[in-house]
Amino acid sequence: MALQFVSPSFLWCLLLVSIPIIIHLFNFRRFKKVLFTNVKFLKELKEETNSRSRLKHLLVLLMRILAVAFLVFAFAQPFIPAQKQTMAVGQNVISIYLDNSFSMMSESEEGNLLELAKNKATEITNAFPASTQFQILTNEFAGVQQRLLSKEEAEDEIAKTKISPNSRTFNDVIARQQEMFSASNIVDKRIYYISDFQKSVLPASLRSDTTINLNLVALKSNSAANVYIDSCWLSSPVVMQNEQVVLTVMFKNSGDEAVDNIPVKLVVNGLQKAVATVAVAAQGEATCCSYV
Fold first, then answer.
1. Can you list the positions of beta strands (E) in the chain?
2. Which DSSP category does 241 fall into?
3. d(CA 216, CA 195)
4. Which of 94, 96, 232, 286 has the highest CB neighbour count under 10 A?
């Protein structure tokens, strides 16, 4: 069974093992010569010391090579794909993608989006017989997520899902799910994609695959005003000691309602340097200036 990698591009870093080999071959250490009047009595001791030193250097070289190789493999995330097998009659394989990006922290009328998505995923697993096998995929794209789980194991993985800083595009997720299906002789291929479908992850056009039954489960959050810092800049490109400069901050309001009297504080190295308030029109922007 062939070993595969989640991030095979990291394998190029195996070239770094040449560094300890070069260090060993060229031996950059400098030796200091010590002259003796008679060294006959040191001859046997020197031969024994050289033999031990050579073995020690080879062991150190081996440990350095293994350390670099293991570090590269850790980033490449090796995994063994699901073994090809003939599925039993009536047995299904379901792939469920559970979006756990930051946007899923939003609230909907029914509660937190991630918790709602986990409930939807559990409902999907309960809709199939106990013999069904599942793939539970999240934005981590971990190697362990490329193996098939029983119904109970799938529900445990769903319950353990938490918010992740990772974000995956729609095509990347579908490609990873198709990769799992290609490792097994599955006739009925079913994919469930549970997400709030942010525009940043959606492709310009969807790739159609008639061999896969694709089910999109869209979750919608409540519309909420979002005021955020778009950019900030200093009045001078060079900051001189004991000279004040003006810091300008641009705020934007993506909501449909204007906001007033938003408190703004500037803290430098734990010390508050300035305080102000800002008002931003609906779908507008505003700037605030302060001396620093």
1. 4-5, 78-79, 93-98, 107-108, 111-112, 133-137, 189-195, 212-218, 227-234, 246-253, 259-268, 271-280, 285-291
2. T
3. 8
4. 96
Q: Bridge partners of 43? A: none
Rounded (10°) angle between helices 43-76 and 18-26:
170
Q: Are residues 268 and 234 in contact, defined by beta-carbon separation less than 8 angstroms?
A: no
Beta strand pairing call for 107-108 and 111-112: antiparallel
Exposure pattern of 101-127 as b/e (b: 16+ CB <10 Å)?
bebbebeeeeeebbebbbebbeebbee
**DSSP output for 149-215:** B-HHHHHHHHHH----S----HHHHHHHHHHHHHTSB-SSEEEEEEE---GGGS-SSPPP-TTEEEE
Is the Cβ–Cβ distance between 129 and 93 less than 8 Å?
Answer: no
pLDDT in tens, 82-94: 554 444 444 578 9
Q: What are phi and psi of 5, to 5 degrees?
A: -130, 140
Nearest to 92 by CA among 147, 124, 146, 131: 131
- Characterize the bridge pairing of strands 271-280 and 212-218: unpaired
Q: How far apart are CA 178 and CA 184, in angstroms?
A: 10
Q: Between vectors from CA 188 to CA 116 and to CA 181, what angle results, nearest 5°?
A: 80
Max intra-chain CA distance, the chain: 95
pLDDT of residue 40: 57
pLDDT digits (tens, 9 = 90+) for 41-61: 555 555 556 667 777 778 888
Q: Summarize the confidence of residues 266-289 as an average pLDDT.
A: 84
* Overall pTM > 0.70: no
